[in-house]
Amino acid sequence: MIIVHYLNNSRAHRILWLLEELGLPYEVKTYQRGPDMRAPASLKAVHPLGKSPVIEEDGRVIAESGAIIEYLIETHGAGKDLRPQPGTDEVMRYRYWLHYAEGSAMPLLLLKLLFLRLPGQMPFFLRPVAKMIAGGVQAKLVDPQLADHLAFWNAELSRDGWFAGSAFSAADIAMSFPVEAGMTRIGGMGEVGAVRRYLEAIRARPAYQRALSRGSQYDYATS
């Protein structure tokens, strides 16, 4: 039995979704964020960094979303058509987006979240200054890059509807969180019809819906 350590409103939703696509049995252990939005200390008993998602299977503890996705596909993905065939252009796209999701997209989205929340974390008398600084960094550094990424997503999805070719794959599962989170944080989005169609398509999948029912709070499903 696979155990998924699931933190509310986190990237762990993707792992439940993948497990549902693979048709694997699993157990969910849920954790709630504290007032500071951080994971509880109890997650450190599972993995030293106290992050989610983390899975356990056969005595192994596996962390990091991309590593978990690769492990599950390699171990349980035979015959499920969630990874393109080796040697194809599609598998190169698949590999790129699987790593891009955490390597390029998420650091920028987390930076955006940090500067959105920074003024509210400061003492009252410093908030106007913090708001001015945070707004300036967003306007000059973060937002222009996010606009480039969003345009990139839309262009790629306009090709054939999915991130790694004409068929749904685990790359789409990996990219779901950056896209869903991005739609709540990126302003002035312009024309992103292909991104919206992608969101409609993934949310219509029965496995996505089953994952929502098995997991804890995941507000991004309505972004």
Structure description:
There is one protein chain. It contains 7 helices and 4 strands, in the order βαβββαααααα. The chain is an alpha+beta fold and 223 residues long. The chain has a 4-stranded mixed sheet with strand order 2-1-3-4, covered by helices on one side. Helix 1 links the parallel strand 1 and strand 2. The protein starts with a strand and ends in a 9-residue tail after the last helix. The mean pLDDT is 92.
Biggest β-sheet description: 4 strands, mixed
- Summing up helix and strand content along with how strands pair, one would put the structural category as alpha+beta
Multimeric state of these chains? single chain
Order of helices and strands: EHEEEHHHHHH
Report the mean per-residue pLDDT as an integer: 92
Considering DSSP H and I runs of 4 or more, what fraction of the residues is helical?
A: 55-70%
The first-to-last residue Cα distance is 32 Å
Topology:
Elements: E1 2-7, H1 12-22, E2 26-31, E3 54-57, E4 60-63, H2 65-76, H3 89-121, H4 127-160, H5 170-185, H6 193-203, H7 206-214
Parallel strand pairs: 1-2
Antiparallel strand pairs: 1-3, 3-4
Helix pairs in contact: 1-2, 1-5, 1-7, 3-4, 3-5, 4-6
